[in-house]
Each structure stands twice: as C-alpha cells, then as structure tokens.
Specification:
Shape: globular
Largest sheet: 8 strands, antiparallel
Low-confidence stretches: none
Protein name: Glutamine--fructose-6-phosphate aminotransferase [isomerizing]
Distance between the termini: 11 Å
Number of helices: 18
Number of strands: 25
Helix content: 25-40%
Strand order of the largest sheet: 3-2-4-1-10-9-11-15
Number of domains: 3
Strand content: 15-25%
Mean pLDDT: 93
Pfam families: GATase_6 (PF13522), SIS (PF01380)
Radius of gyration: 25 Å
Enzyme class: transferase
Catalytic activity: D-fructose 6-phosphate + L-glutamine = D-glucosamine 6-phosphate + L-glutamate
Bound molecules: 2-deoxy-2-amino glucitol-6-phosphate
CATH superfamily of the largest domain: Aminohydrolase, N-terminal nucleophile (Ntn) domain
Subunit structure: Homodimer.
C-alpha cells in the first residue's frame, strides 16, 4: 500500500528509484511518480504502472544524483496523474505513504494563507505545510520536523528541496520506512526488497524518527530534535528471494515454495528438537506461565489462521480461545482478562488494524503479547513481548499463501508448547506430533503434485459467477480461506459456510450454476459432511470435493472428487488449503486477471 524510495548517490539515481518502485509494486498501487534534482526540480508522474513512468523517464533521459519516488494507492482522491505523488510546493517535493487525519484543518489554514491546492490528496497539505515552515525556519530539516509535529495520522515521507540540493529528508510515524547504507550513497524505502539492488545494510526507523540523508552519511532525530542512534542491520534477504525465476507469477512461486518455507519455519524441531516455549522467545516460559485463555487478533488470511488455531488450542491444549477480526476488536467494548495471551498474527507486521488492536489490548492491561509475523523488524513485532518469526521468505503476491501455512505451523507449535506447559502433552503424543510436523514439507509437496488435475477443474470454474465453499470443524476456516483466495484474485463471488449451516439459509442459492467446493478430510466429521453434500446434490448443485484417501465418497455425475493423500490428523488444514490456493490461481489465469496485483487491493494494509 503506497511505496517510497529515496536516494542520494554519486551516480545517477533514476534507475535505482525505478527499480526500487518495481520491487514495491507488490504492495499495491494505482499510479507512480518521481522527482529529482539536477539544477532544478523535475517531476514525472503516470496514472498507471511503473513501466509507464520508466518510459517517461527514458524519453526525457532523466539523470540526477538525488531523488524521491512513489507508488500511490489512492485514499484521498481518485487514481490520476494529478493526484499522483510527488506533490510540489514552490521548489519543494514530497512523497507520502499513510493518511493524514487532520489534513482538512491544515488545508484550510494554508488556503487562508494563500496556498493553492492542485490535487485532492492529503499529501499536498504536507508539501505546503513544510514550505510554510521554511518562511520562519529556513533549515529544511527543521522545517520538516516542525511540520511533521503538526500531523495527526500515519505517515512515511520523503522530501526534496531545490534550495537544499545535497540532502533528502525522510520521516515516519505509523507507516514503515527504513534507511539503506550503500557504497555509492544513502537510500530510504518502504521495505528492504526495494534496496537490495544497492545494499543489505539497513537501519529501521522508529515511529516519530526523522532522518537526513547525505552523500557522506545520515543522522536521525526524534520529534523534539534530539539526536538518536539506530542499530545497523545486515539484511539476510538475498536479491534472488524477490525474483520470479522460472515461475509465471509470484503467487505460483510462493505456492510452490511452501515445502521449503515450512521446513525453514520448523527448523528448530528438525532432528531431535523438542517442543519448547523457547521457540517464542527467551521470556516465553515466564509469560506463558499462568495463561488461562488466548485471544487471537488478525485480519484476512491471518485471521483464518487464527480460526484454525482455535480448534487446536481448545482440543489439544484445552485453553479457551477467542479469535477476533482486529478492526472489530479495536473499537468494541470488551472485557479484558489479565491472564490472557494475546496472539497477533500478521504476514507483513504492518497491518494498521492489527497493530492498533494489539495496542488496544495492551492499554486494557493485557501485557502477555505474542506476534506471529513474517517480517522481523516490523511494527507489530516490536510492539509485542514475544515473537515467532515465520520463515516464509518475502511474500510478494497480494494473495497470501506461504505466509498462511507457515503461520499455521507456528500456531501448531504454540498449541503444543502450551499443552506441554499445562501437562496435557504426554511424551508419546509429543513425539507423534513432532513426527507429523517434521514430515509436513514432504506431505505438502505431495499435494502440490495434484496441480494438473486442479488446473482442469479451474477451466470449468472460470465461467462461473459464484461459488460456495463448505467445510466443518478445523476445515471450516480452510473453506473460508479458499473463498477469500478465489474472490481476491479471480473476482468470482465466493462464500464459505460451515457445512452444517447449509440448510439454515445458503441452500437456497444452490442450483446447477452454483459450484460447491467441499473440503472433505477423512476426520471425525466426515459422515456429517457427507450428509450435507447429499443436500447439495439433491438440489442439482455440482460438487467439487477435496477428499482424503479413505473418505469413500463415490464419484458420480455432478460429483467430482480429487483424492488427497491420507488424512493428516491435526495438521490436515495445512494440506487442505493447498488445492484451494491452486484452484484460485488457475481460475484467475483462465480469467486473465492480474494475479499478483488484484484490482483495488494492497499487500500491506497500512491504513484503516
Ligand atoms: C490475503 O490473501 C490478503 N491479502 C489479506 O487478507 C491479508 O491476509 C490481510 O490484509 C492481513 O495482512 P497481514 O497478514 O499482513 O496482517
């Protein structure tokens, strides 16, 4: 959701800015722009893809040693060239990620002072505000500091000024931003992927930090102007990790990376490793001690991972568990209980609602917090007492796939760790679960081999306008995840129901044009599910059943069966989501949608 790249270097930064934007495309955007200083300020904007911006830069043979660049995901004002960043005030240019909540008030007071607004964006208010500060505080860094102190809301910004051509200023609050220390200059970007082209040495800015980037170095200050030191990290990401390689789309690549991602995430139990609270941090044993309930907070796919975990935590660890959509929890009046472990799940670690829900839980007195996250230095991780970093590697496709299955792996470990602490995991049971977890990458690999058959099913699906997903028990959230995937990337309307709910309403929708996808593991609820499937067939609905070996659901007219490997017990949801990911991927391919960047969506939802 919006991306920023800033660079000052001894060589031409235009290719670096453009390549950085390409690497941030996955975050979701609808327009792009850049501004560079080379004597005077030049700005280019395109109401479309980064490729169009690059073509404009080529045509102008743009070259400069300092610049800012941006991909915009529209919040205030339609996607258009006029609203694309950078926004300019006098000789000053600003790019911005986030939402300024008090921009109307700032705009009114600036208009009263004679500033004329050309766009509908909140960002333009920042540009004029900084410009207005320069009248009384001619130092650009100071002017940006004073301006950002007046902003309410979330921002990561980059600022350039014609009158001050040897430095770029960046600042952040709420939205991500990190610095890159390169051989040929200094850089800043919304995430590491954009900077791997020039450096792996990064500095994560904290909320409220303001930084000045110069050719010979940088400095960071707090909102009151006090200087601070921030640690320099060496990113373990390789540039290859964000390359497409042999795959057609990132989503496809990421689906097929799942065995590896699971193996990496579960590395601590490989070989002879046992289940331990230590997997969640040095203080985990102390923090888990006395936990009587679990509250999971998350959004979207991460929320579905939490829903699966509820079944595990209650059945295996016997811990009462509530799972809430973060955007609901943060605003509702709830009853806090101090002996609760608050588990926040987020691939990006940036999701504004999840971060706010976590902070809200803490203000209610719930200090035992655990983040399950794929990005080590993200805001959500830093806000939590404990952390489990899934090792899925960068997930670029907007549709979350490997992040989901690695979250499930982390949640399975959490379930077993809490069960063990509570004396509910006998040694033999622990060994059985450990064996299943260690074998999980191989089991997932086998399911991936079903792709050719799923591809055939997808051909029939692509012409449908609606689809119904059914599941029961811990596979109901998998049905929900399948429906989310399908609608997200193929734009086919899909709904998921707990199969037992069918006759309480949704059965009315079933006819020959409504495909019904059933997640049918050979578990304790299979016989119940079979009855639900009969209800569908009796109304002429066409069934697509993902059945474990041994499910004994006969294929017949209108009943298509795809046989999965043998039932995988507690971890079965990890296997059953794979064909649903593949089904939505191939349906989207047939429909010709933009698989990795579906319309209207962003990878990191850093605004409310
Ligand atoms: C999943 O395919 C979606 N892109 C979306 O639901 C996502 O899971 C949600 O926005 C939460 O993101 P997070 O895991 O980064 O917090």
């Amino acid at each position: 959701m919006c991306g920023i790249v800033t660079a000052i270097a001894t060589n031409n930064v235009v290719p670096v800015l453009l390549e950085g934007l390409r690497k941030l495309e996955y975050r979701g955007y609808d327009s792009a722009g850049l501004a560079v200083l080379s004597g005077s300020l030049s700005r280019l904007r395109a109401a479309g893809r980064v490729a169009e911006l690059a073509a404009l830069a080529d045509a102008r043979q743009l070259s400069a040693n300092i610049g800012i660049a941006h991909t915009r995901w529209a919040t205030h004002g339609v996607p258009s060239e006029r609203n694309a960043h950078p926004h300019i005030s006098g000789g000053l240019a600003v790019v911005h990620n986030g939402i300024i909540e008090n921009f109307e008030a700032i705009k009114s007071s600036l208009e009263a002072r004679g500033y004329v607004f050309e766009s509908e964006t909140d960002t333009e208010a920042i540009a004029h505000l900084v410009h207005s500060k320069l009248e009384t505080h001619p130092d650009l860094f100071e002017a940006v500091r004073l301006a950002t102190n007046e902003l309410v809301g979330a921002y990561a910004i980059g600022v350039l000024a014609e009158a001050d051509p040897f430095r770029a200023i960046v600042a952040r609050r709420g939205s991500p931003l990190l610095l890159g220390i390169g051989e040929q200059g200094m850089y800043a970007a919304s995430d590491t992927a954009a900077l791997l082209q020039v450096t792996r040495k990064v500095v994560y800015l904290e909320d409220g930090d303001l930084a000045e980037l110069r050719l010979d170095g940088y400095r960071v200050v707090r909102p009151d102007g006090e200087a601070v030191e921030r640690e320099v990290h060496l990113s373990s990401l390789s540039a290859d990790a964000v390359e497409l390689g042999q795959f057609r789309h990132y989503m496809q690549k990421e689906i097929f990376e799942q065995p590896q991602a699971l193996g990496n995430t579960l590395e601590m139990i490989a070989g002879g490793g046992a289940i331990s609270p230590q997997h969640f941090g040095a203080r985990a044993a102390e923090i888990f001690d006395g936990v009587r309930r679990v509250l999971v907070l998350a959004c979207g796919t991460s929320y579905h991972a939490g829903l699966v975990a509820r079944y595990w935590l209650e059945s295996v660890a016997k811990i009462p568990t509530t799972v809430e959509i973060a955007s609901e929890y943060r605003y509702r009046e709830s009853v806090p209980e101090a002996d609760t472990l608050v588990v926040v799940i987020s691939q990006s670690g940036e999701t504004a609602d999840t971060l706010a829900a976590l902070k809200h839980a803490k203000t209610l007195g719930m200090a035992r917090t655990l983040a399950i996250c794929n990005v080590p230095e993200s805001a959500i991780v830093r806000e939590s007492a404990l952390r489990f970093i899934t090792r899925a590697g960068p997930e670029i496709g907007v549709a979350s796939t490997k992040a989901f299955t690695t979250q499930l792996a982390a949640l399975a470990l959490l379930t077993l760790a809490l069960a063990k602490l509570n004396g509910r995991l006998p040694e033999a049971e622990e060994q059985r679960h450990l064996t299943a977890l260690r074998h999980l990458p191989v089991a997932v690999q086998k399911v991936l081999e079903l792709e050719p058959e799923i591809e055939k099913w997808a051909q029939r699906f692509a012409s449908k306008e609606h689809a119904l997903f059914l599941g029961r028990g811990r596979h109901w959230p998998i049905a929900m995840e399948g429906a989310l995937k399908l609608k997200e990337i193929s734009y086919i309307h899909a709904e998921a129901y707990a199969a037992g709910e069918l006759k309480h309403g949704p059965l009315a929708l079933v006819d020959k044009d409504m495909p019904v996808i059933a997640v049918s593991p050979a578990d304790e609820l299979l016989e119940k599910l079979k009855s639900n499937l009969q209800e569908v067939r009796a109304r002429g609905g066409e069934l697509y059943v993902f059945a474990d070996a041994g499910s004994e659901i006969p294929e017949s007219e209108g009943v298509h069966i795809l046989h999965m490997p043998e039932h995988y017990g507690m971890l079965s949801p990890v296997l059953h989501v794979i064909p649903l990911q593949l089904l939505s991927y191939h349906a989207a391919l047939v429909k010709g949608t933009d698989v990795d960047k579906p319309r209207n969506l962003a990878k990191s939802v850093t605004v409310e």
